[in-house]
Amino acid sequence: MEWCGRPTAVVLFQGCDLRCPWCQNVDSVDPKGGKITELKNIIKHIKELLPMVDSVMAAGGEPLLQPKACLALMKRVRKFGLECGIRTNGTNPKALKRVLPYLNFIAVDIGAPFTDTELYGKMIGRPVTGIFLQKIKESLRIAIGSDAKVEARTTIVPTLNDRKDIIEELALDVIGVDWLRFQQFRNVSILDPSFRELPIPSRKELIKLARTAKKKGVGGVRIFTIEGGLEEV
Ligand code: SF4
């Protein structure tokens, strides 16, 4: 489901500069975790998948913490006729610009409205300033201004961003994307154990928030839940 409707090989990059308490990629966050792999090994594996995939998606962790490796990967797989996508937290717009010519799809995580530094900080597990959020905003603008399809992704976390007024503001921040995707917070295998007490928002709640966003003029709105999988609202 990293790249909707596409048979995609997903390459997970180790390490992330954020610590979203609801993060489910727990093993990918620590920059010292994982194992070092040579590009040729990844390419070999992708070649084996070739009859089954038409694209490669860089995800993680945060792939743009390793821009050289991202670039090298994309240049190689493009030669096999594969399209390239990336999922990024948006904190490194300069690195995004470097890989931009190779991208057909960009998913950018957006935690909260850009004006709400306190809430954004809670969503990503570290205090942030307006200047820091400008970087994410810039990444989103770079993505929207490119030829790639763009999806803003927001995990709906109870007690943080699951409010109508917050979603209305967030929707206005991402106008211009092809899709806004709301993902359901899960309370197992997540980074911050204190979040395990929170309830999982229902599919119905996500649909309601998706309709709220749609009314604000966002192009396509999708939700991703355990109950219904990926759905267009
Ligand atoms: S969810 Fe947050 S902490 Fe986890 S990989 Fe994505 S940006 Fe990093």
Structure description:
By secondary structure, the chain is of the alpha/beta class. It has helices spanning 26-29, 39-49, 67-78, 93-99, 117-124, 130-144, 164-173, 203-215; strands at residues 8-13, 55-60, 83-88, 105-109, 149-156, 179-184, 220-225, 229-232. It contains eight helices and eight strands. Strands 1-2-3-4-5-6-7-8 form an eight-stranded mixed beta sheet. Strand 5 (149-156), helix 7 and strand 6 form a beta-alpha-beta unit. Helix 2 (39-49) runs parallel beside helix 3. The two termini are 16 Å apart. 39% of the residues are buried. Iron/sulfur cluster binds at residues 16, 18-20, 23, 25, 28-29, 60-62, 89, 109.
Structure described in brief:
Helices cover 34% and strands 20% of the residues.
Please tally the β strands and state the result.
Answer: 8
The hetero molecules present are: iron/sulfur cluster
| Main sheet specs | 8 strands, mixed
The string of secondary-structure elements, in order, is EHHEHEHEHHEHEHEE
The shape is globular
Number of helices: 8
Q: What helical percentage do the residues reach?
A: 25-40%
Mean pLDDT: 96
In the sheet with the most strands, the strands line up as 1-2-3-4-5-6-7-8
Q: Rg from C-alpha positions? A: 17 Å
